Fold these 3 entries.
Entry 1:
Amino acid sequence: MRRAMFFLAKKAVFFLISHSSQPTLRIWAKWYICQKNYSVIIDKINFGPQPIILAPMEDVTDPSFRYMCKHFGADMMFTEFISADGLIRDGKKSVAKLDIFDYERPIGIQIYGHLIDAMVEAALLAEKANPEVIDINFGCPVKKIASRGAGSGMMREPDKLVEMTRQIVNAVKLPVTVKTRLGYDDNSKIIVELSERLQDVGIKALTVHGRTRAQMYKGEADWTLIGDIKQNPRIHIPIIGNGDIDSPLKAKEMFDRYGVDGIMIGRATYGRPWIFKEIKHFLATGELLEQPSVTERVKIARMHFQKSLEIKGDRVGIFEIRRHFASYFKGLPDFKETRLKLVTATNAEDIFGILEYIANRWGNFDEIKGMLHKSPLSGKE
């Protein structure tokens, strides 16, 4: 009873923030919510207030990148999403994605698929890797996944989606969470009703991306329905918002306007794992941190590369770091030739040498030309 009253009180405050026509009431409500400093709890995991979470991204959120994001303050992270079919067939690539490390905790393993039995079996296999949560992907809009009825393609079959979730919740001992979208298209934005049904079958948290499957990543994310979920008095699980969070200012705006419990960030982390530190510092102090200089970016890229080599060895470690190198130094003038060398070098010693060259050649670029990124990197999750 006490817990139910707590959630109702919290929702009432957020309703005042979003809807009150009286400025005094809105100011009081924002002050009250800050003073209460509400902690976000997923099952037994206490994140404290306003957690910032790394989204699961294929070919991006591998262990070395997760290491960097954790270093800069990510409150929770997820593995790359894993195919249920790949797991149950013991596919090498899928099984490798189950590798997690203690320093990453709390961490979730995300799975996707379109067959209920296969998803249940995959969830049981993922549970053996001992993550904190099992997350179900009902949000990926990529054609090869959605067209098979997996990812956000599952939103065309909400009854099957809910039944799949129910069976996974009942099969595993770990808490289950879900990541999804507003709906399949503009004519089927079912997320408000769906959130109640998912909560009723036992999920412990829900992440919603503010676009439909049909939108892919086009246009602007619409957080209005995410806010409507938070204001629903029946909802008591944490609601995490996702979509177009690319700066500390945007993160604070979404927390204040829609009252979400946490924020998940995806593409804005490309070449910018320090965005977690930026956002948390701004939420705590109201101050914006300066972007790292080129010299500092080289140090960050070197740390990332060393971790990639440590975890995956030279051949794979070098190959998989290349997509990140290009993002770390995006925007540098006359960089095309050096970029080509950086992403084609096959020897670790050569790559460290190129990174040192970048620091020497462009180390003063920020002082001469101003910030490398005058505004925060844009990105969509």
Note: Residues 294-328 form the longest helix (35 residues).
Entry 2:
Amino acid sequence: MAGSDRDLVIALRAELAGIDPARPCDREAEWAGLDVGERWRDATLARLAVRLSRHDGTALAVAGDPGDTGPGRAFDWPNRAEHCRMAWLRGRFLARGSLSVANGRTHLELVVAPDDAPTLAGWLAEAVADAGSASAPGWRIRRGRGVVTLKSAEAVQLLLRRMGAGASLLELETRQVARTLRGDLNRVINAESANLLRTVEAAGRQLDAIAALAADGRLSGESATVRAVAAARRETPEATLGELAERLTIHRSTVQRALDRIERLAIG
């Protein structure tokens, strides 16, 4: 990722880590999701774990060792409220997740135990169901660990919003919209440039053919329509077929057939 994209992801993670759940059940859920494992040296995660445990003296006992809180064991997803589910996912993302927004592509990953990957993928599918079927998460085993992925920008943004992201998510969405607009603009410009190039090349061939037919007298033997189209093309080399048709008050197809005939005669 570029430096600015990386800084944005860092800011987003910091914003999520700074959320202080008001409900005790949300604090317990986020702690259960905060599977820090060997990452206890991460200062942000360590501060978050301490803050969550201080709010409720029983939180550590309820959640147990964060290294032993995999999906389906310490968190009862089916029977928990939506806000608890999002708190759990927030903790899981902060401890075991990564986000990439390089080159306009959004890619979110959550690393879990291999047996937990399909379970977590199912939970994520529920969380982002509103983003459409095309945004369904996938999972695979990589280097002995389960990896759950979410590649739809819409689904990732929906998930981050539900987890509590605010200003940093807005900045992410703004950048992605700007990238999309630039991409669309570039495609339009490229298409117009290609069309213009084809028009210029065709006009050049047509002018050469008209000059050749006029030089040997064959142009004068053509129909009035062909001669009128040839004269219009000479006077306005840059005109499109539609503009020539409008000028001569005839159909575009008639202009096309007249110019095709002129080119065929010049070649023959």
Note: The CA atoms of residues 19 and 148 lie 24 Å apart.
Entry 3:
Amino acid sequence: MLRTTVRDCLYLNWALPAEALPEPPAPLRYQLHPWQGQDWTFVSALLFHQDSLHLTALPILRFGYPQLTLRLCVLDDEGVPSVLFRKMLMPAWVAPGVRLITHQPASRARLHFPRPSRDANGGPWRWQAERHGKLEVRAWQDSPMLGEGPRLGSWNDAVRYFQERPRGYAVASGELHRISARHPPVPVWPLRAEVEGNGLLPSLLDLPEDTRWPGLHSAWLCPEIPFVFELGLVLRVPVPPVMPHPAAGRVVNFFWRPPQRRVGSRGWSGLPFETSPPGPLSSEAGEGERRRNFEPLSFRRGVGVR
């Protein structure tokens, strides 16, 4: 069992056409949402700092590092909302140990992440990641809002959709491993984010270099998330090697409408939460953009809906 505190975790969420993505390993299936005549699934990039990561059997040995996790929203064979970890990027010195101990798809990368929880000004902040491509993000505190992609309900519904996923899966050494995680309700800061450069994420999904990436669906930041992980092997049946995806030989446009595939999906809704209006804010105009400071909003209480 592993324990850690994730700090300054930036959530970036996008909707991608399921037809453009490689099939997930069985028994997993994408959690599909019909929109604009085709099925879509959600992918999230989480950029954060691991703090005091340790095995419960060795509580004295603790360490921390920045990490970028790319994950896809899936349903497992029991219909439980889960995530498929596609790639985990971290400094070179820690990646081999993470692969050995946790069986997760860890790879080395250059990461430069800010500490928004230590900044009382509300941003803007910049995140940078580089591995066979770059990802650059600029974000600041703002009102809750939803962008491009299928509707998941209110802002609170969207937050619960991405956060309340107790199971994670990853392929390692030809086997599918399950990671169970739990954490208490945590504060959520709504953000406005701009992706200023993104050649990295398409490469992590094995999509063509010139893939047109869609606009953000939603973004927020959690200043602190205490996690407990339980590691376990789910399938001992070897997973077939990943074959080149049909999209690899052409440019993928995420507004292209491929023939719809007839795949069923199961809906899911989170537990009810009480909502309360956002705290007082102060606005400051700069370079034609609004920058607002929010008081931290409790995920247990919910956040305001715009």
Note: The first helix runs from residue 95 to 102.
